[in-house]
């Protein structure tokens, strides 16, 4: 089953902080971590990253690892400088009020073959 950024946005009740981005982007896998070293080591290219970290290192790490989009959990919202940096890199950014656990649970239930 194909999972798109639009599906993810709906499942986590998120807000797209980069509204000009394409919601039809396919997302082959989900990866959740607050450790950027784990992201650098284990994430597969094209994955969607769920994290509670909101600093610019997340955007830079996402770009290095060819992440499709970033979902910030716990209602956290990066400042506009971070959002602008993501926008410059054509990287969609979503914020959700859900906890990391709840966001991962919803996505894993809807797309069990995509969860990692």
Protein described:
With 116 residues, the chain is an alpha/beta fold. The chain has one domain (5-110): 3-Layer(aba) Sandwich (Udp-n-acetylmuramoylalanyl-d-glutamate--2,6- Diaminopimelate Ligase, Chain: A, domain 1), CATH 3.40.1390.20. Helices cover 37% and strands 14% of the residues. It has helices at 5-11, 36-42, 56-64, 80-88, 100-110, and strands at 15-16, 30-32, 48-51, 69-72, 93-95. It has a five-stranded mixed β-sheet, sandwiched between helices. The longest helix has 11 residues, at 100-110. The two termini are 16 Å apart.
Going across the biggest sheet, name each strand in turn. 1-5-4-3-2
CATH architecture: 3-Layer(aba) Sandwich
End-to-end distance: 16 Å
Instruction: Please provide the ordered H/E string of secondary-structure elements.
Output: HEEHEHEHEH
Structural category = alpha/beta
Please give the largest β-sheet. 5 strands, mixed
- The averaged pLDDT comes out at 94
Number of continuous helical runs: 5
Helix percentage = 25-40%
Q: What is the approximate shape?
A: globular
- Rg computed from alpha carbons, rounded to a whole number of angstroms: 12 Å
* CATH homologous superfamily title: HprK N-terminal domain-like
Work out the count of structural domains.
1
Provide the CATH top-level class.
Alpha Beta
Summarize the SSE layout with pairings:
Elements (H helix, E strand, L loop, with lengths): L4 H7 L3 E2 L13 E3 L3 H7 L5 E4 L4 H9 L4 E4 L7 H9 L4 E3 L4 H11 L6
């Amino acid at each position: 089953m194909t999972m798109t950024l639009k599906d993810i946005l709906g499942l986590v009740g998120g807000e797209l902080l980069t509204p000009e981005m394409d919601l039809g982007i396919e997302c082959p896998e989900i990866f959740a971590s607050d450790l950027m070293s784990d992201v650098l080591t284990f994430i597969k290219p094209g994955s969607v990253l769920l994290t509670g970290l909101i600093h610019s290192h997340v955007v830079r790490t996402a770009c290095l690892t060819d992440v499709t989009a970033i979902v910030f959990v716990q209602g956290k919202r990066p400042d506009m400088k971070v959002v602008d940096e993501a926008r410059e890199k054509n990287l969609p950014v979503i914020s959700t009020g859900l906890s990391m656990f709840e966001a991962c649970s919803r996505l894993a239930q809807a797309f069990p073959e995509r969860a990692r």
